[in-house]
Structures are given as C-alpha cells and as structure tokens.
Structure to design on (222 residues):
C-alpha cells in the first residue's frame, strides 16, 4: 500500500478502497454568469484547481479507482430548494432565476453542467446534491458503502464551503479524507488557507491535506 506524504502525517492509501470525489466543478461556480458570480465573487479564482484535478482524474482512471462527481443544484420545480436557501443573500438573480447559462443552479441547465475539462465518463457516478455537503439528501454513502470504499481523495470547490462540509460529513461517517490543496479552490484566499488548516489541525481532526503530485506518483501516473 502506498504511503502518501501529507499533513498532519503520512496516509497509507489503499487504492482498492479509495475513491476520488470531485466536488461541484460546475460552470455555475467556475464561469461568469452563474451562481458564484451572482453571489458577487470573482469566479476566475477557482480555475487554479482545474489542471491539477485533471491530472489526478487521469491517474485515478488509469489506476481503476472509483471516481465520483458531485453537482450542487435543484429540481426544475425547485421542490428541493429550502426557502431559506432561496432567500439567502437577497440576490437580484438567485437560484432558479434565468441567467446567461440558463436557470441558476437548476438541474439540466447549461450552468449546472460539470466543466468540459473534467467531464464525467461512462461508469462514473454523478451525485446531485441540494445542499453544501455531498452526503445530505443523496445516495453517496450507499454508493461508497456498496463498493467497500473507506478512503476519499477530495478535489473541487469551494474549499471552505462544499469541500469542507463534505469532508466533515464523511469524517463523521468513518471515511478517511485526503484533500488535495492544489485541486481545491475558493473565492477567498484566506478562507482557502484556513479551510485546509481546519481539516489537518489537531492531529487531522477532519482528515489529511496533501498535494496532487505525490498522489499521482503513488498511483503510477505522471
Ligand atoms: N459548491 C459550493 O461550494 N457551493 C457554494 O455555494 N460555494 C460558495 O463558496 N458559495
């Protein structure tokens, strides 16, 4: 079993029991005119994660590892959208409203799609999630359990929101999480840094933080 150098200490990775989970790399968060921009953010800040995540994705596929993609969004009738989430931010154009990439954060709309650079391929489960955490109101735990997965390699956006929420949910369910610092991104550099520090502090209270290169090498990629 490869040992991955990371913090707070090296992680013994079992690729047969590990899954790559790519959180919400959707046009709505990474491209202008989507939900991220509607919240007032500079969406270009998230793009740093695309190339390294693509390399990890290629290595995971090559190694035969389970790859799971998640997407934050809601049913077209918005029946799974909590009124409190809809109201949050008092946005002029918010969830469910029309934007340049279709209705914001609504399933089936162009903005809800995963960016083309990281598009899922056949056999890779795509988990649609109405909340920030990927376990809340989804079948992610069942998918992982049924495949015997105990370790998660986590990439995606944003570091302190959906990545952190998902890692906390996973940790409480007994999964070991390794977050790759160059494969996650935030609209706020200081939240990115603190989001990662919160995970690995106190002996790895929520999990491990590493980078893509040693993981790719351990998987036999380049
Ligand atoms: N996927 C995710 O992180 N959803 C968010 O709403 N993130 C923000 O940082 N707003």
């Amino acid at each position: 079993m490869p040992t991955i150098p990371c913090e707070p200490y090296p992680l013994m990775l079992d690729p047969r029991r590990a899954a790559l989970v790519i959180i919400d790399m959707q046009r709505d968060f990474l491209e202008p005119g989507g939900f991220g921009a509607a919240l007032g953010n500079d969406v270009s800040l998230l793009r740093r994660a695309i190339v390294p995540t693509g390399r990890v994705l290629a290595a995971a596929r090559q190694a035969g590892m389970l790859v799971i993609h998640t997407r934050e969004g809601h049913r077209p009738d918005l029946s799974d959208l909590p009124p409190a989430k809809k109201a949050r931010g008092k946005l002029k154009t918010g969830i469910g409203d029309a934007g340049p990439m279709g209705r914001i954060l609504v399933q089936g709309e162009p903005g809800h799609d995963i960016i083309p650079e990281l598009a899922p391929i056949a056999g890779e489960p795509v988990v649609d999630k109405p909340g920030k955490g990927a376990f809340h109101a989804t079948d992610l735990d069942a998918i992982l359990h049924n495949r015997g997965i105990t370790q998660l390699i986590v990439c995606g956006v944003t570091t302190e929101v959906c990545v952190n929420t998902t890692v906390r949910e996973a940790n409480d369910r007994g999964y070991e999480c390794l977050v790759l610092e160059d494969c996650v991104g935030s609209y706020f550099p200081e939240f990115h840094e603190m989001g990662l520090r919160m995970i690995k502090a106190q002996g790895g209270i929520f999990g491990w933080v590493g980078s893509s290169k040693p993981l790719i090498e351990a998987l036999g990629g380049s």
Observations:
- The radius of gyration is 17 Å.
